[in-house]
Each structure stands twice: as structure tokens, then as C-alpha cells.
Amino acid sequence: MTDKTKIGKYFSYDINQGGWRELPKSLLLIAITLLVILQADKYIQTLIEYGYCEKYGTFLDYLAYFFQGDYVYELSASSVFVLPIYWLAFHAFVAYIVGFYPYEDFVQYGRMSILYGKDRVSWWLAKILWQILSVAWCYLLVYGTIAGYIICKHRLLSWKLTEEIWNNLSPELLNYTTTDLIVVIVILPVLTTIAITVIQGVVAFWKTPVVSFMLVNAMLVVSVYSTSYLWLGNYTMWLRNDRISPEGISPVIAILIDSVLIVIFLIIGIRQFKRVDFLGKVDGL
Amino acid sequence: MELVIKDYTKIIRKVTVLDQINLTLTGGKIYGLRGKNGSGKTMLMRAITGLIRPTAGYVAIDGKKIGKDIDFPQSVGALIENPSFIQEYSAMDNLKVLANLSGGIPEEDIRSILERVGLNAQESKPFGRFSLGMKQKLGIAAAVMGKPQLIILDEPINALDEYTVERIKELLLELRNEDRIILVACHDREELDYLSDVIIHIQEGRIVNDR
Amino acid sequence: MIEVLHFEWNRAMRSKRIWFVLGAGMLCSVLQAVHYEMGGIVKNFYENSDYPIVCWLSYLGRDIQLFYRSLYYLIFPIMAALPFAASYYEDKQSGYQKVLFMKVKRNAYAAAKYLVAFVTGGLVTVLPLMFSLFLHAGFVPGYPPSELSLQAVPLDGQPYCNIFYEHPFFYAVIFWGIDFLVGGCIAGIALCFSLIAKMKYSIYVFGFVFCILERTILYQFDCVNWAFSNIAEMTDLLLNGWEIFMKLIVTVIFSFALFVGVLTRKDVL
Known about the structure:
By secondary structure, chain A is an all-alpha fold.
């Protein structure tokens, strides 16, 4: 059997086990998305009441609101550090949904499936594929929930920003072209989340999934505090873009770093997994 | 088929669990593995199946080293420790998943092996609700289905009734006659003596006597 | 009951998880103190403010400028659950539960387990805060805080703010007491979840997911004051002391009754 066929077989097993069984956790994301949409609606409602705006937002408005994150934090005597809770909730839940299944399968059934498939690397690659697909699924859920809400409320399902809304929120966003918007609101967050989950998966096998989950959340919090290429969470917040703030993140560099990290940790993961011992049930901490 | 274990040593957290193991196993024999609890029987089985990597030495099957040339023996079935299957699936479904991963074993063969070990292939009861004996039977069925060249069984007759034990013994002897390597660990001296062509004694991670 | 309690407590203390969590918490305290001093924040206050920062506001539990407090309270639920919330799950999986039920009464076992999970959950979340305050007291002045300095939280309307300005250490003790209760509640909730959990990690992470979800939902309905995480942090809190304790006591009673009630009736398979 070729490696590709083996990866395919492991992957279809993962879709079955990790997909359907993990599906209920996706409801968390739908809940978070709805909460963000309602929050956005509340804000827009206020603008409408005060005459700054005439209509509710489009699909892109809600999407941009969802993934905005927070402005660059500047430490001073009067600064107050606040976590953007919705942004954090989304990424923490993605880490929760995606980050545990590979290790869980390894501990429960992995010994059998790897022995019978006879290929460690294919098993690992199938898991990475599963993680990538799951991240895409999480983002699709968000897009789908927003789109569904828009359609139900008979609003504009368009890829255009509403000037009146963003003049009050973040006028800098209006300077972006459509391509820029696709990059900073769609491509970069998805790619960065994939990078984070690949790293999380590798660390989960090196330490435990709980430790890797805590480290991911720590990284997210530090990202809010420090605007630096070192902290991946920054790439997922378009408010941290270098067009919004001079100390911000360049999307091009961010995409490059994400890609490099994915490749590096893929290789580290493969090397690590080729040497891992199956010693029986090792269940978390 | 020939399985060679050469100077195999495994150290886990500064404890030597396998120490300079040297063994050659050939097809057409049942090898009985005997030793006290904690002597290294299960660890040796893990080493042969490629589930652990050596600190030193190697395991080679037909000249191919595990961990270097191949990840796992190309034709192997193993029951090591507690049988581990998907809780929600029935016996048949569990074996189908494994059969699919290992390159396709006909459904008829799966059905026949289930009947052989005393399980009902039509049964839809999920694995999570099996008794200990049923789990053990399924573990054996998974290990021998597709008639692999190398069969590793760790305490296969635990929790089995007399009738099933006899059937399993018959099955193993049949497989032995088909030129396969079978390695069985068992605490029951009589059963092991009956089954085995060669008895390997292991003590504190070392082979002390094989005859 | 005393023997079972003693037994469960010993188990908790021997487990490496409790020391891992304490270590992580202490590390957070040390890093925050080092960052605070090395980051020149104390110096900044002396140079740019009319009133120096005080240790009652600079330590891990109250600092609003660095990210450590937010991080600490974010992983607070995981820290509370790690020491002992999965102990019932472990007993069930290993079959040890069957051995124990031959020797002790089920309700005593359940009650002891809940109590130990509660106390260990509270302790591991509070000890790093205490450690942090004592660390900060070494290099940040301990003047009585001044409302006029505009750096102070709690502000008017927030719980125990009078006590804060008059007896800041006593306020810190009350704050730690509330955090102890919150940590214990979360550990108790995670222990209840372990009755149905299928994997150990999900028990540890359940409290985290629960707290985030609770906070985001309550935020939507302008009731975020009632969220566990807000009660633990007590920064923007607008509940009074009675409301805080009411929520916590109700949670304890409910989760205790649920855990003991289910365990005493559950079949041991």
C-alpha cells in the first residue's frame, strides 16, 4: 500500500472518529459567534439611534468585528490591560476542539491503528491533515453562522464594509482594498490558527495535551500584551496590522512566518513521533 | 520468516527494562515466553512489534531492521496488554476498521475468525459493553485475522472459559503448521508447555534460558 | 469519614499534579514581580505620578497593567481542577473504586473526595497570590492606598472598597478567601463533570470552557458581574459581599449534593 493510500485511510478514520464525535463541541463556536454578532448589533443599534448610521452591517462588517482583536497595548502609568474576551474565547475553543483529538486517539486506539496500518508517519500526517481541516471547519462555522444570521435578518450578504460603522470604530480599515481585507481577515487568521494547532499538537506529544493547551492560552494572552512577531496571536487580530499601527504586524511577514513554522513543526512532529514509545495508557497529566 | 533480536536494550527513566536481548525466531514454531510479573515479557513483545524504540540493538525481520528500514513488521498481529478497541463499535465493525487499515482482509475471513474465537459476527453489541472474556476474544481475533506471519499474544487465555481455551489452542497449532512465528506469554505453566515448541525464560529484562 | 478524608488528602498531597500547579502559579508570581521591577513600572510611577504605586495594587492579584493577572485568571479554572478533580475518574478507570466501596461507605467516599477537591482547588489558586504579595512587599511600598491617586481599584460601589482603603491587608485576605471559594467551586464543578467524562483531560479543561462560556454569555446580557471569573478577579465587580457569597454557597451546595447524590446511587460496573 502506498503512503498516500495509508494517509487517506488514516484520514478517513480520523474524519469518522475525530469528526463526528467532536462535532458537538462545534456548538461552542456557534454560540460564541452569535454572541459577537449580537454585541455588534447592539453597537450598530446605538449608532443608528444617534444618527451616525442608517442600516445594519454587511457580512464583512460582522466578520471584521469578530476578528478585530484589540489595538496595540502601550504600557504606561494609566494603562489598563484588558483581554478581548470574544477573540480569546474563539481561539481558546478552537484549541480545545482541535488540540486534544490526536493525543486522545493515540492513547485510546492509536496502538492498534498504527500497528495495523504499519506506518507511524502516515498516522501523524493524517492527524495533521485532520487538524488543518478542523481549523478550516471552525472558521467555516463562523462564516456560516454570520451568513445565516444575515440571511435571517434580511441584511446584505456582501463583501463591502459599511463606511458609517467603521468611521466610528476603526476608520483605518476603510483604506484597505478588497485583497487586503481577504488577506488580513480570512487568510492570515486561518493560516495562523493552523500554525498554532500544529505546534499545539507537537507539544501535546512532548508534554501532555493539558500543558500544551495552557501554553497556547498563555501565548494568546501574551500576544494581546506584546505586539511582536514572536507571539502568533497578533497575526489573527487585524487591529494589530502595520497599517493600523506603526508597531503592527506586516501580513506578508506573518504569512511567511506561519508557513515556516508549520513546516518546521511538521518535521519536528514527524521526527518525534517516529521515536515515540507506545507504553500503554498514558492519559493526560 | 526469520525474526532476529540482536543486543536489544531498552532503558526507560533510568530503569533497564530489557537488557542485551538476543533471540532468533523462525517460522513454524510457537515460542512460549515465561517470566515473573515485571520481568519484561510485555516490553519484549512491544519491542518485537515496533511499538517501542531501542536504546541499543535492533529487531530485524527478514533482514529489515525495525525503526530503520521499516516502522513495523509488515505482517503482524498482536494482542498486548488489555485489548483496545473503539468503544461504540461492534466486534465486526472494529475488525473491519483494522482490516481496512492493514490493506484489506475479506469480510468473510473476518466473520469466520470471529466465529472461531466464539464471538457472534452478527452481534451489534458495542465493544464498551463486552465482558472481559469477550474483549479478550476480540483481541485474539484481531491478532490472528488475515493470518499474519508474526503473531504476538500476551496472556491470551486470561478470562476465557475452558471451551474457548481449547479452540484457541487448536487455532494456534493450525497457524503454527502454516509456518508462522507465534510468540505467546502465559502464566499457566501447563498450557504453555503444551503449546510451545520453545520456552523462553525472561528475568529482570534478560533472557536466562531458552530451550 | 475522618479516615477517608485523611486518605484522600494524602493522595492529593502525594500527586505530582498539585505541585506542578503550585509551581506554575509561583512561577507566574515570580515572573510578574521581576517584570514589574525590571520593566521600570515602579520607577515610572515615582516619576510620572503624584502617588507611588503600592504593593496592594501591584501584586499578581490586583495588577492591571501587565498581562500576568489576566493570564493567571484565565488558566485559574484549569489550575483549580488539576490537583484532584479527576480523582474519581481515575478510581473508576483503574477499578480502585470497587475496592474502596467494599471498605468505606459511598457517601463518606463522595463527601471526602469533594471536600479534598474543593480545598486543594482553592489552595493552589490562592497560594501563588499570597506569595506574590509578599514578593511585592519587598520592593513596592506598602502605603495605605489613596482614592485620589486615580490608580486605585476597587472604586466606589465595588465590594469591600472601604476596607481596602483602611485595611488593605485585610482586604487582600478577603480577596484571597473569595478566590479560595471560587477555586474550590470550580474544582467541585469539574468533579461533578467527572461523573460523565470520557477522558481525563476533558475534566481539567471543563472548568475553563465553562468559565469562558459563562462569562461571554453573561457579558451579552449585562450580567457579567455574576460570572465566576469576574468574582475571582473582583476588578469591575458590582456585586456586594452577600451576592458573591450567595452565588458561591449555592454552587457549593448544589455541586456537592449532585456529586454525592449521584455517586451513592450509581452502579459500579
